[in-house]
Amino acid sequence: MTALVLASASTSRARVLSEAGVAFAVQPARVDEDAVKASGADARTVAAGLAEMKALRVSASRPGTLVLGADQVLVCEGKILSKAETFAEAAVQLKFLRGKSHTLISALALARDGAIVWRHIDEARLAMRDFSNVFLDSYLKAEGEALLGSVGCYRLEGPGAQLFESVEGDYFSILGLPLLPLLEILREQGVIPR
Amino acid sequence: MTALVLASASTSRARVLSEAGVAFAVQPARVDEDAVKASGADARTVAAGLAEMKALRVSASRPGTLVLGADQVLVCEGKILSKAETFAEAAVQLKFLRGKSHTLISALALARDGAIVWRHIDEARLAMRDFSNVFLDSYLKAEGEALLGSVGCYRLEGPGAQLFESVEGDYFSILGLPLLPLLEILREQGVIPR
Fold first, then answer.
1. Ranges assigned E (strand) in chain A
2. For B90-127, how does the pLDDT look when each residue is reduced to its tens digit (9 = 90+)?
3. Is-catalytic flag, A137?
4. Among the four given CATH numbers 3.90.950.10, 3.30.365.10, 3.40.50.720, 3.40.1280.10, the one describing domain B4-188
5. What is the ipTM of this complex?
6. Could you say which of B21, B135, B166 has the minimum Cβ distance to residue A142?
7. What pTM did the predictor assign?
8. Which H or E run contains A93?
9. What's the rounded Cα separation, in Å, for the pair A163 and A146?
10. Which of A11, A20, B55, B135 could crosslink B109 through cysteines, CB 3.0-4.6 Å?
11. Domain boundaries, chain B
């Protein structure tokens, strides 16, 4: 079997991959995400570019192995939102997203020996309901630190589900790792059995 | 807040509900599922009927509380599949489903004081890939007892994901609990805050 390295620090991505029964090592890539997001490029280009940069960065130090880079970008009303760094920022983001639809773009890239060998991009559309401020306060308390780790300040697999009116798109893409197309290429590349 | 009772023994449903931050008690309903499935009714009628029967059965002993009944039915080529009871049966089912599309029908019903107050039904469509017998053997070993607890012998949130080529439909419906419409009625009924 070919070895796989996940070039992401996301615990959510690592969990999806290990629950699916895929063996891998983790080596987060350091890239300047904010610089890329501030470049003025459109959201799909940003997500795809960051996924590729992460895969290539780690690939340089891992000859012969497959390296998976991933990125997720949230767009609402043409604006790209980054992860909140404080609770105050999370409350502002959630109030901005409340009562509106937004798009989550998830990009994956596989690199080997410094070259990209596969790319994938997927979008999901989520509509937040018009929740009360009382609900928002209890949600922020219930989630605690966890909400600072997620784009959009929610985990759909947790209490974040209570924020939503409707969700359209692949669940694994929403978690940041479009799983079925990834498993297909991992079979082709000999990482997992057919 | 109004109290909620889940009339289902499914650990997967209980997990989805508790991870979403909903408080509830569990009291599985005893109904003769096989008799209903053998009745000749179509799959949607079977799923909806079983969800209602479970909710009503438990509601009789829980005056004033909301009781949630749920059922999931798998249909492939017009045939309703029940949960496998042995590994041998699981292998036969998975070989039958291999390389084909099937439908998962998930029905919910809420009862209060012996009357149904809400119903919901949803369908998802899943295509299994043409996996090898070697893969099947390793899958059966990896999943062990867990696969006997799920309709179709797979957990999409586990190694079961490796069985699939494509999945269309709501992830929570596939787990047996269409979550977003349920949360909406639970807000209306005062079980969770708005």
1. 4-6, 25-26, 66-76, 79-81, 101-112, 115-128, 164-168
2. 999 999 999 999 999 999 999 999 999 999 999 999 99
3. no
4. 3.90.950.10
5. 0.93
6. B21
7. 0.94
8. helix A87-97
9. 15
10. B55
11. 4-188
